[in-house]
Amino acid sequence: MAKKISEYDEESLDLTNQFLLIDDTSQNKFGKLPLSRVFDPAYGIEWDPSADTYTRLGRIAGYAAGTPTAKGAVVPDDLLPVQAGMFGCVVNDAKEMQYRLSATNHANKEDGNAATLTGADGQVMIRVPRHWWLQEYVGGKHRFWVSPYPVKGYHEFTGGYIGKYGATMYDDGTSDYVDGDGNGGADIANDVLASVSGKKPWSSEDRADFRTLAENRGTGWHLLDNRIYSAVVRLMIIELATLNMQAAISEGNSKFASWVFATCIGATGKSNADGETSNGQSTAGGNIGDYVSYRGIEDIFGNLYQFLDGVNVKNVEADLASYLWLCNEHANYADDVETNYTKSGELALLDGYGANLIQNINDKGGLYTSAVGGSSTTKLTDYYYQAYSVLAPGYVTDWRVVLVGGHANFGAKVGVFCVYAYSGSSNAVSIFGARLCLF
Fold this sequence. Notes:
Layout: E1 19-24, E2 29-34, H1 35-38, E3 43-48, E4 53-58, H2 81-84, E5 87-91, E6 97-100, E7 123-128, E8 131-138, E9 141-147, E10 155-157, E11 160-163, E12 168-171, E13 176-178, E14 192-194, H3 207-215, E15 221-223, H4 226-240, H5 245-248, H6 261-264, E16 279-281, E17 291-294, E18 297-298, E19 305-316, E20 321-326, E21 342-346, E22 352-357, E23 369-372, E24 383-386, E25 397-405, E26 415-421, E27 432-433, E28 436-438
Parallel strand pairs: 19-27, 24-26
Antiparallel strand pairs: 1-2, 3-4, 3-9, 5-6, 5-7, 7-11, 8-9, 8-10, 11-28, 12-13, 12-14, 15-28, 16-17, 17-18, 19-20, 19-25, 20-21, 22-23, 22-24, 25-26
């Protein structure tokens, strides 16, 4: 029996052997047109790491793949339905959306009235819509695909919310949102991780404590994890057709000559007036007002490193290898374990600018450095740190956690592919921050 297009929303979409009957008596034509040419929802980008070139794929194949300007829309939103489905909103602790924010100015609600971004109405989040994705490695080239509809062989991202801002803190003792000062000291059992405007982000807790602080907000609230971070980065790559997000948007808060929390880190909300426009500011020598924003997600790189949950790194002396372990189930997130995690490839064994990514990474997703040798303007364009090369012989096995993005005096090394796989699970320093997410 023939199917309506709408029926494909509920099952894997395989258009290979589906056809549309053509009966045009005026042209004396009758035949079958492959449905894949009529309705092909997938689109993506191919990156050739050898030549360091990009090619758009699928429904956006006709558009150039040069680095766009910060606000330039090389591909219109109607051809980027997944990215266009991202929006800012305020969500209460019970996971109820209170209202959407204006696409052109997040200081306002969608209806034009002033929004409350201080936490009184809820947490300020960016919705990442449900979609289907695929990462593949074909002929020495990486391909990244997304689709707003199910496609056979693709993996589902069920949808979620990522904090608009780097995480701030709600102090249970004072019943108020408070500024971070770089010294940590949260009441782990009672304080709550937050995403609100007008407060300095929190730092100097370890990953397990940040995980607990996020989950203190209630069921469904979690620390930023590999699943949603990878989804956002894939969307960035496909939309901007580059791995160099600093050139495509902004270098953000990354140019301070030295690190002092008080002078390098300002209050959240610097991107509010941009709404869902990708934009930023970056000043030579550093400026506390510098920032970068991708479709409303403020400081997705730079400012402070962000812990990434659901990712563990295991260095194994006998194997001469650094293994990446991934998990997508929040209930199973834990430090220094492989139980309930999937071995997902081998990481580069040396520090340096990334030159290639782990191939065919599996259904967990993720974009992690497999080799170094790039630069701040070529290949991955961001820096990778690991602990493997500094481990003394006889260590046998060694566990590390992962942070991403870089920080305010990291310079050209910052970016969405900046991975810090050096720190142990108990490390908590002033450059280590967090971000809230909700599923």
